[in-house]
Specification:
Layout: H1 3-12, H2 16-38, H3 41-58, H4 68-87, H5 101-112, H6 115-124, H7 129-140, H8 145-152, H9 156-176
């Protein structure tokens, strides 16, 4: 059992502080992952809150077949998809027009903390959604191939191939920006 799973188990047994531990541990990463779906930091934060509300109200069963983090991010994925389905029916003005970029940058800096990674994260936004997700889950959240496959509902082989293409695409984008990164 990882830390999140034990905290969730304690929460199910009635320890309300255990949910607060889960939120502190996973909130920022979940927001950044959901952001890869929404391209809107405010919506990503709302969706992450909705995920934690689901944990509190519905108390879904955690089977332990994957890590707690993988399970939580899967809930985040489904919640983001539901949100996109609901909001795609409405014409809306992007809320980002009303917020300064400092809000987004502050969250990135708190979570990533390294200037090169921040730059790479920004360049990643130019990639298609699957590429952004596989790179984010693999390198920023440090999920392994099978965990990433579960979250993205793909096979391990698809993730391996997708990761290869995503890295190649990211490297190309970085070179266009005049940046080279040895680990790619």
């Amino acid at each position: 059992m990882d830390n999140g799973a034990s905290s969730y188990h304690r929460f199910l047994e009635g320890d309300k502080n255990a949910l607060a531990e889960i939120i502190r541990e996973y909130r920022d990463g979940l927001v950044m992952y959901v952001y890869s779906y929404t391209d809107n930091i405010c919506n990503a934060e709302e969706i992450a809150e909705e995920v934690f509300i689901k944990l509190y109200v519905r108390k879904p069963r955690f089977s332990g077949k994957s890590s707690f983090k993988t399970w939580l991010y899967s809930i985040g994925r489904f919640t983001a998809i539901d949100h996109i389905r609901k909001t795609s029916k409405f014409v809306s003005v992007p809320i980002d027009d009303f917020y300064s970029l400092e809000d987004k940058t502050e969250l990135e800096q708190n979570y990533i903390k390294d200037e090169q990674k921040i730059f790479i994260h920004r360049v990643m936004q130019k990639l298609n959604q699957d590429y952004r997700q596989v790179l984010y889950l693999t390198y920023f959240e440090e999920f392994n191939t099978s965990q990433t496959a579960k979250i993205m509902h793909k096979t391990n082989r698809q993730i391996t191939y997708l990761l290869y293409r995503a890295k190649k695409s990211l490297k190309s984008e970085l070179e266009r920006e005049g940046f080279t990164y040895e680990e790619l």
